[in-house]
Amino acid sequence: MNNREEQADQTGSYTSNQVPNPCPICLAPLVKESYLDACFHKFCYNCIVQWSRVVASKSSGQSASIKCPLCKTDNFSIIAGFDGTCFQRHYVDQDFGNRFTFSKAHKYRLQCYYSEPGILNDIFDVSRFWKSRKYRQSNMWLQSWLKRELQALMQEEDVDIVVHHIHGVIESFWTRIEHTRVVLKKPAEAYWQDNFRIAITEAAKPFLLARTDRFVNELELFLASGLNIEAYDAVYIQRLGWNTSGSITTNPVHQIVPFLHIFDVGSDQDE
Q1: 3-91 has which fold?
Q2: How far apart are alpha carbons 224 and 215 in whole angstroms?
Q3: What is the pTM of this model?
Q4: What are the tens digits of pLDDT across the range 61-87?
Q5: Residues 75, 37: contact at Cβ < 8 Å?
Q6: What CA–CA distance (Å, rounded) separates 5 from 13?
């Protein structure tokens, strides 16, 4: 007999008055606390999974969403295993036994998004990247960086279509700069940087939602660094005060707990 059964046996049954903030489905203490992604109502993981399966079994076709048992809001995934830095996300229309598992690299990158923004601005000079037109230098690591970033943020393994989409927007933007000759009312680097951020935001927001702005910042930092992924990670981890396992060592940068990147030292002159 598990703890829940023992507690129920002693009292006869659970009621919402006996348990503070119980699971709305079983009315017992929450076991493996889980959230729905839109309304953020919380349930026992097994309870909400079973609920979604029952609802799906009564539907004529496979649904990509589930209505919250409490507020009837449409939700597309269940968030579970949240430990303050990372979590697992299970989509309603996917097999719950076949889910994406984080690697240490994915966990490290997701933790970076929970650190204070701008902690590397003194190391990777984004304004210099635009002023010196370093974007004309091809970045052979960009697609691999995008894939890891999107996998971490979207909690999905197959992000190839999204990577192709965002990488295509970036490449098209570089081509647009090279073939556009216009009289600008402000410095060219500021004009193109603003428009780059707008273009990437529009491309990424349908997939990253509230994390889009931070993603755009991280993308600019990686491009400005001119480093490969391993060297970029080493600089980031050192600044955050982490050891190689991703845990905090000495003098860590303050981390934000949520509710639910050495640049090219070459000349700044155009080549």
Answers
A1: Herpes Virus-1 (3.30.40)
A2: 14
A3: 0.58
A4: 667 788 898 898 888 888 887 766 567
A5: yes
A6: 9
